[in-house]
Write a structure and sequence with these properties.
Helix content is about 45%, strand content about 10%. The strands form two sheets. The chain has an eight-stranded parallel sheet with strand order 1-2-3-4-6-8-9-10. A two-stranded antiparallel sheet has the order 5-7. Helix 5 links the parallel strand 3 and strand 4. The structure holds 6-deoxy-beta-L-fructofuranose (LRH) and manganese (II) ion. Manganese (II) ion (MN) binds next to loops.
């Protein structure tokens, strides 16, 4: 399907440029009074990138139901086509995280060049030992890398090695491991032995890490295990990453923490300990809701970036976190949610770049809590929308991605091109 994106983007620009330039000039003056050069800030916005999850372009669901929308992608190539549209409009999502075997290609080289022709890379592989595949020898019902049966652990290790071998062919540079292993009842698991088995299995995965790659391990408080999750929090993740070696890091998924956990402190600790590998950005009100990033707690997202930008500006050794979205789009057009979420993560980054760190440090030294918070709030309440739009424009993107996407009728056209697949049930239905 060919869409005249350039023409649609130019139409949108013609319609919105006067107001945008007025807002931008106002922002430039506002920041100028704070001694901040709007052009330098825009350059930082243009350099910002966040990866999109291949599994985020199809409609998500819950164990109760999934309501697929029109034009769902039917294979990894159509997923990449949809990721291309997101990046065509927002220009900050040139990398895609793949999930194996959901995205297992017959011809890795063909998939890699298909993505490259669209200006996209396939930077991170995610393994999947949380569901059984047809014909699989051993079930993961009672775990995978931490299973009591060595044969199951071996099977899970082999799957992770396969993901990395495939990833090398796809041009990836990191492997991400999340397991659902855990117990549902007290006594079901020997929690210390389970962690020992998990770490033992991860050593085998780490030992096969391709040159130059990093290994990300992702903690999660609960679900699918509802009593004792093996890798349940950042402390255990940090311990494992340190035990494994210099190329193992902790990945922070926003939704994987108990309610009210201070995630920005978890991030600060992992930065301080040199083990922050990256993020799965999303948002949540209660559990692992996988809602759009910045949609529920935008101030928390800003506070996390406040820690990240502080580390970036202090040039903390080895600080190179990989930013990725991980969301489930149950009631929105997944591409609209990915575009908005990517822009909200970029917004939090740019606002965090506005923090007057010298003033903040002085307030902290003087224990002037009110002024310290005010320094953060000044940055958080600065409307950088015009700058983000100008940054997109400067990279050939849309000033208003949602408006251009809707004007393109992309979704309606897809529904003709991609007949609806047979209805697949969710967990309990
Ligand atoms: C687990 C998780 C993990 C992915 C999956 C799709 O909740 O966050 O990162 O493998 O979602
Ligand atoms: Mn995740």
């Amino acid at each position: 399907m060919t869409i005249a994106w350039d023409a649609l983007i130019d139409d949108d620009w013609r319609r919105s440029q006067e107001a945008l330039l007025d807002d931008y000039d106002h922002l430039a003056r506002q920041l100028g009074r704070r001694g901040i050069d709007v052009r330098a800030l825009q350059a930082r916005a243009e350099a910002f990138v966040v990866a999109v999850p291949s599994w985020g372009v199809a409609t998500g669901g819950t164990r109760f139901a999934r309501f697929p929308g029109p034009g769902e992608p039917r294979n990894v190539f159509e997923k990449i086509d949809d990721c291309h549209v997101v990046n065509r409009l927002v220009r900050i999502t040139p990398d895609i995280s793949l999930h194996i075997p959901w995205d297992e290609p017959d011809d890795p080289a063909a998939l890699r060049s298909f993505a490259a022709e669209r200006g996209l890379t396939l930077g991170t592989t995610n393994s999947n030992t949380f569901e059984d595949q047809p014909g699989q020898a051993h079930s993961y019902k009672f775990g995978s890398l931490s299973h009591t049966d060595a044969a199951v652990r071996e099977q899970a290790i082999a799957h992770n090695l396969h993901c990395m071998e495939l990833g090398v062919k796809l041009g990836a540079t990191a492997h991400s491991v999340w397991i659902g292993d855990g117990g549902n009842f007290p006594g079901q698991h020997d929690v210390r032995r389970a962690l020992d088995r998990y770490l033992g299995s991860l050593r085998a995965v780490y030992g096969a890490l391709p040159d130059g790659w990093r290994l990300f391990i992702e903690h999660k408080l609960y679900e699918p295990a509802f009593y004792s999750t093996v890798l349940n929090d950042w402390g255990v993740s940090y311990h494992c990453a340190r035990e494994l070696g210099p190329r193992a890091f902790s990945l922070v998924d926003f939704g994987h923490h108990a309610p009210n956990v201070n995630i920005e402190m978890v991030v600060a600790r992992l930065i301080q300990f040199g083990k922050l590998g990256g993020f799965h950005f999303n948002d949540s009100q209660y559990g692992d809701d996988d809602l759009d990033a910045g949609s529920i707690k935008p101030f928390q997202l800003f506070l996390v970036f406040n820690e990240l930008v502080a580390a970036e500006e202090e040039d903390v050794a080895g600080f190179d976190p990989r930013y990725m979205l991980d969301q489930s789009h149950n009631v929105t057009d997944p591409l609209e949610s990915l575009m908005v979420s990517a822009m909200e993560v970029q917004r939090a980054y740019v606002q965090a770049c506005l923090v007057d760190r010298a003033a903040l440090a002085a307030h902290q030294e003087r224990n002037d809590a009110i002024m310290a918070l005010a320094a953060l709030k000044q940055a958080f309440t600065t409307d950088v929308s015009s700058l983000l739009a100008m940054a997109r424009r400067a990279k050939g993107g849309a000033a208003n991605p949602l408006a251009v996407y809707r004007a393109s009728q992309y979704r309606a056209r897809l529904s003709k091109e991609r007949p609806a697949p047979p209805k697949r049930g969710a967990g309990i239905v």
